[in-house]
User: Fold this.
Amino acid sequence: MTQNHFIIATAGHVDHGKSALVKALTGTDPDRLPEEKARGITIDLGFAHLELPSTFQLGIIDVPGHEDFVKNMVAGVGSVDLALFVVAADDGWMPQTEEHLQILSYLDVSHAVVALTKIDLAEDEEAVKAQLRKQLTVSPFAEAPIVPTSVVTGRGLDELKTTLALVLSDTPPPREIGKPRLPVDRAFTLRGIGTVVTGTLTGGTLHRGQAVVVQPSGQSTRVRSLQNHNRDVEVSGPGMRTALNLPDLDADSVQRGDMITLPERGGPSKAMDVVFERSSRPMASQTGAARLLKDGTLVRIHIGSTNVPAHVFFLQTRQLRAGERALAELRLAFPVFAFAGDRFIVRDWSEQTTLGGGVVLDPDACSKRFRTEPQRQLLERRAQSPKDATAFVQSQLERDGAVPGSALLVKSRFSAAEISRALALLAAEGKAIAIGQWVADGEKWRTLRQAAMDAIDAEHRAHPEHPGLPLSELRTALEKSLPDADGFDALIADLCAQGFSQAGAAIRRTTHRPALPPHLQAAAAGIRAALSAKPLEPPSRKELAPDSLRQQALRFLLESGEAIELGDEVVMSTDAFVRATGTVKLFLREHGSATASELRQALGTSRRIVIPLLERLDKDGVTSRAGDERFLKK
Assistant:
């Protein structure tokens, strides 16, 4: 029977009974630290496992509710499918209740079950429930079921399990996009086993023996073994609490905030372009979150299981108020590995207030590019449709012109199939085009290709004697329009499929035939006459082309294949070269080998000609030399 794996995170104010509820549901005490036992509050993340009917396997992350430990709370809720939102009946809605709700909203957690705990202490249960429902209005959890519970009397525990199963049955399963990532929330060493990291696996599967990389350090390692809730498994998938044994790493080289992923998924970045929003909920002002957030402010970014200092710069405004939304760039104090589409939380530098949250639109941002028009257009399109693969593909192609297909949105929350479907849709509309291993914006590529065609045609008109436009000149002419150096090769391949062909280091129309312009025809006729007068004893190159006109004509004859260079000083007609080659091959077949002197006599020419001729035949692989002897090469 198929197991459905989901991650649930608790949320709520300190001392509202989150950990006690988890223990009552699972039998596992999530408070594992001695200080937590002594103080009676959750300080760090706790973990438990709950199996429900209908094949639901739930990993429960118990987060701290105290304001001093919100950063730990955020580290635990980055990959949850459902929130177990806890409010104590005797205490009601409190500051951290509101802050946790806003954090979950920024992270796009839209499914929840509300546990109204300590219901045995409520004086008026219906009034408490009504007040709670009012607080949930205009939030993602406005319609969430409310289940009164008491760990003292046991009331509501079975109903809570049933409700969790019911809500999860309508909750989309964690996405499998072929891009596994494990945000590390714990790292430790076990004697005889080595380094172990734990986290919630998202985006894909990991299996035993697989090569992985630790980001942002880039350290390579392998997965020796995996566990899910203390059980050995061969494979772990999205939505599973996962422990990885990474024997090649020291415990000090991996920590909470690191990301375990695959080597081909790119690297970390020190800047991210994002859409940043601030809640307009009334309690934001009471928690200090309503003050202006100014351009350039130093904040703390929470993404995945890490948090990092960053300066926030807005694209089109100088400040952001509560209830507003803006495009921004986060310039990070150290590199972070993130995907386009990832959600993040922004807190003030002192870690006292949650200021807002948002979505990563470009995980590999560049401060020099941030305020350019192409980047602004990319960010606006993505901000309008943060879950639309087509918007992300089209915006990148419009900005970059062309990109290698294998690199397109590799650091995004879209699967290869979703990206392929987006490309197919854009291609059908003429907005994208595939060229070999590259994909390009349709309009920009057609413009680039036409510019290349025009440059080649101009060369044919200006210099009909040339075989084509040198590739180096074409590259220079189009350099500013090319996405990168490899993009030029894709352009040449595309031109060769559009009626052009490459001729050595030049490119031409396939219909182009080099022709001497009138002013060079007399010079070419003189060279031809000189080469044919004594085919195997032609004049020197200086004698053939003593002036500029003859040098241009000789270049044409060489490029068109009518004449052949034998070294720097000797030029021979192609017909004479073919006859000489035949004579050499016949002589060597009959005699087995020969010296240069013997071949000179057989050809009836001079040493000035025979030495460069034989060196050319050696280079062409016709003959080989051993000492003074030449042999036919097999």
Q: What stands out?
A: Residues 542 and 569 are 8 Å apart (CA to CA). The first helix runs from residue 18 to 26. The chain is about 35% helix and 30% strand. The mean pLDDT is 89.
